[in-house]
Amino acid sequence: xxxxxxxxxxxxxxxxxxxxxxxxxxxxxxxxxxxxxxxxxxxxxxxxxxxxxxxxxxxxxxxxxxxxxxxxxxxxxxxxxxxxxxxxxxxxxxxxxxxxxxxxxxxxxxxxxxxxxxxxxxxxxxxxxxxxxxxxxxxxxxxxxxxxxxxxxxxxxxxxxxxxxxxxxxxxxxxxxxxxxxxxxxxxxxxxxxxxxxxxxxxxxxxxxxxxxxxxxxxxxxxxxxxxxxxxxxxxxxxxxxxxxxxxxxxxxxxxxxxxxxxxxxxxxxxxxxxxxxxxxxxxxxxxxxxxxxxxxxxxxxxxxxxxxxxxxxxxxxxxxxxxxxxxxxxxxx
Length: 334
Hints:
Blueprint: H1 3-30, E1 41-49, H2 53-56, E2 61-65, E3 71-74, E4 79-81, E5 84-90, E6 92-100, E7 122-125, E8 141-150, E9 156-161, E10 166-177, E11 191-195, E12 200-202, E13 221-224, E14 236-241, E15 249-252, E16 255-258, E17 271-278, E18 281-283, E19 291-292, E20 301-310, E21 314-323
Parallel strand pairs: 1-9, 10-20
Antiparallel strand pairs: 1-5, 2-3, 2-6, 4-5, 6-8, 7-12, 10-14, 11-13, 11-17, 15-16, 17-18, 17-19, 20-21
C-alpha cells in the first residue's frame, strides 16, 4: 500500500471519529446527560408567590442549567395558569432560573449558547439610547432554583418568591434656592444623573463580570425634576441592576428571606450629579464630576438620597437605605 495513501486514510478515520465523539458529547451535555429521543420526562409545577405573580407570569421564562451550572435549554412548552407554571422536564437534577418582568424584555436578554457556564455568561444588558442610559425595568425579577430533582412518574412541586434583581435609588430635592426661576424655557436644566451605572447581569444574577468591577455605562442615567405649584420637586426614581450574591437570601424559620448582612456583595458605588439653572446655564456645584453615594445598591433594596442645594453656597446629600417590600402570598396550593 502507498504510504501517503495510508496516512491520508488514517487521518480521515481519526477526523470522522473525532466528529462523532463531539456530536455525542454535545447531545449528552445539551440534555443533562439524556438523549433527546430517549430521555424520560416528568411534570414540574412552579408556584410564584407574589402579589404581582399573575401580572408577571405571562412574561416569565424557564431556563434549564445542568448540575454543573451549564446551560441546556429554554423551556418553550410552558403552561401558565393563575400564579403557576407547568412544564415537562427530563428526569435528573437541575439548576433552574426563572426570569420575569411586567413587560417584554426579550431585546435585552441573551439566551446562552448550549453548555455556557451560568456565572460567566451575560443575561441582561441595559443598552444606551442616544446620550443616556435608560432605566432598568423596575420589575426585572430573577429566581434561582438549585438542585431540583425530577423523578420518574412524580410531579415535582416547587414554590418560590419573586425578588427583584434591581435596586431603586430615590433622589429628593429637599431644599434649594439661589437659582433662576424654573420656567418652561429652562426646566430641562433641572435634573439629577447617576454616573458609572452597571449595565450587565450574568445568569447567576450577579453583576457581570464581577461585583467589584462590573461593566458600567459611559453615559449617565438622567431624570428631570418636575416642580409643583408650590415649588416642591417630585421625587426622582432610578432603577439599576444589582448584584445578587450567593448569600443574598437565607432560610429563616423555614422561609426564604433577604439576608440583612450578605457577604457576597458588590463594592461598586455609583455617583450622583445634580443640575439646576443658574444664569441660564446648568450649574452642578461640587457635583460636576459626581458625588460618590456611600451605599452600594442591593437587590430589592432602596437607597434614598436627600439633596440640599443652595446656589453657589452649598450642595449636601444625606443618604439612607430601606428594603423594597412586597406583599407575599403565604399559602401554597397545588
